[in-house]
Amino acid sequence: MKRNGHNDESIKMAANTNTLKSVLEIQDDFQVDFRARNSISRVLGFRNQVYEEGIHESDSVVNILSINSRECGRDWWVLCEWENTKHNLQFLSQRVTQLQNR
């Protein structure tokens, strides 16, 4: 989006902590297409459709368990594995520093 001269404010995601649903805000004639195979629509609680400009609340609650249980698409699994790897590397780095400072 930035490459095409748009700001980062055209599409925003938020959480409705009262309903545990996602809130998608779309501006500037943008669209969000959740019809792609393995899209994150199911995780965010949205239907597999195109959402136009406006504020949209998901139909279902956020389904974070699908990420943790590997029911989601491969891209999400890779992302989760990367986050786990980063966390483990940070922990190991801290531990090595502690050992070196003894």
Question: Distance between the terminal alpha carbons, to the nearest Å?
Answer: 49 Å
Rg over CA atoms, rounded to whole Å, is 18 Å
Strand content: 15-25%
Mean pLDDT: 75
Could you describe the 3D structure shown?
The structure is a single chain. With 102 residues, this protein is of the alpha+beta class. It contains three helices and five strands. A three-stranded antiparallel β-sheet has the order 1-2-5, with no helix packed on it. A hairpin with a 4-residue loop joins β1 and β2. The mean pLDDT is 75.
Keywords:
two-stranded antiparallel sheet
Summarize the structure.
Helices cover 34% and strands 24% of the residues. It has 102 residues and is of the alpha+beta class. The strands form two sheets. A three-stranded antiparallel beta sheet has the order 1-2-5, with no helix packed on it. Strands 3-4 form a two-stranded antiparallel ribbon.
Outline the fold blueprint.
Layout: E1 11-16, E2 21-26, E3 32-33, H1 41-44, E4 50-51, E5 54-61, H2 65-68, H3 74-100
Antiparallel strand pairs: 1-2, 2-5, 3-4
